[in-house]
């Protein structure tokens, strides 16, 4: 893991297309901005973990098929 120190308004570049900016520091909270191409998905770790768990659950569950109820009888 690379550990870097940055101050407000300084950036970190990831490749040529992604930059991370330090927007604000208040106590133990830091606001960052991420500038990346639209095709790059960016998630907070807890959201990413929840998506992975839901995808895994969906892949292992049995498919739910709709039930159809037909009435038998004469046509009019």
What does it look like?
This protein is α+β, with helices and mostly antiparallel strands. The chain has a domain at 11-59. Helix content is 21%, strand content 26%. The protein is built from one helix and three strands. A three-stranded antiparallel sheet has the order 1-2-3, with no helix packed on it.
Key terms:
1 helix, 76 residues, alpha+beta, 3-stranded antiparallel sheet, elongated
Largest sheet features: 3 strands, antiparallel
Q: Rg to the nearest angstrom?
A: 24 Å
Annotation field: number of helices: 1
Q: Main sheet: which strands, in order across? A: 1-2-3
Number of strands: 3
Structural class call reads alpha+beta
Topology:
Layout: E1 11-14, E2 18-26, E3 29-35, H1 45-60
Antiparallel strand pairs: 1-2, 2-3
């Amino acid at each position: 893991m690379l550990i870097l120190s940055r101050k407000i308004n300084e950036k970190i570049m990831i490749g040529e297309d992604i930059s991370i900016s330090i927007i604000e520091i208040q106590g133990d909270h830091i606001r960052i901005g991420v500038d990346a191409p639209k095709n790059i998905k960016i998630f907070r770790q807890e959201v990413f973990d929840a998506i992975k768990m839901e995808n895994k659950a969906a892949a292992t569950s049995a498919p739910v098929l709709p039930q159809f109820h037909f009435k038998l009888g004469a046509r009019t």
